[in-house]
Amino acid sequence: SEPLASEPEEGHEAKMVRRYRLSEDKLHKLHLRADANEDGKLSMEELMKFLRQTRKASSLVHVAEVMERLDTSGDGMVSFEELMGDFIRGVAGGSHFDPEVEIMRKLESDKFAAADANGDGRLSQHEFASLLLPETNLGVLDVKVKHTLETKDADGDGFLSKEEFWKASNEDAGLDAEGGELLLSKHEEETFSKLDKDKDGRLGSEELR
Fold it and tell me: Domain EF-hand, which positions (predicted)?
């Protein structure tokens, strides 16, 4: 008897179609999950909320590891004292009275309160994730933006110029010969330009979020 003909090898085009269909199916499922009001369309608000939730979920493994280290009481939660105790040991060499520690204590206290959704003074894993990832929690993000403005806004106009925005990370940078302005790298210029959505040469609170 004649040997059976072998199945034709799947061509490149067929493989691409198969992969595209799989990708399309996954995309459809993601769309359904993100479409909060189930109107078949994704608004920018729905998309951004979904992206925040997705990043938060993908980071929970790392969050659990950090929580285990901080949770000295073993109750599965993180208190503000546990959080700051670790910070002081790691950054300030154990000094509770360092001025920088006091500034950071105020910032972390405000972030902690914003992340503590039920107000019980302790952070669960999901609440702690919001503390570590401010972009996943608008309340924590607002605290961070407010702190950035307060510490960098030298002229008090409520906005950050390029020089104000980068000054803290460029204390040793040179100045130009004419106006005494901070010399910025191409990357820093491009980063500021992307953040400056209205192109007015300064960053407001919405642009810093």
Answer: 22-57, 58-93, 112-138, 183-209
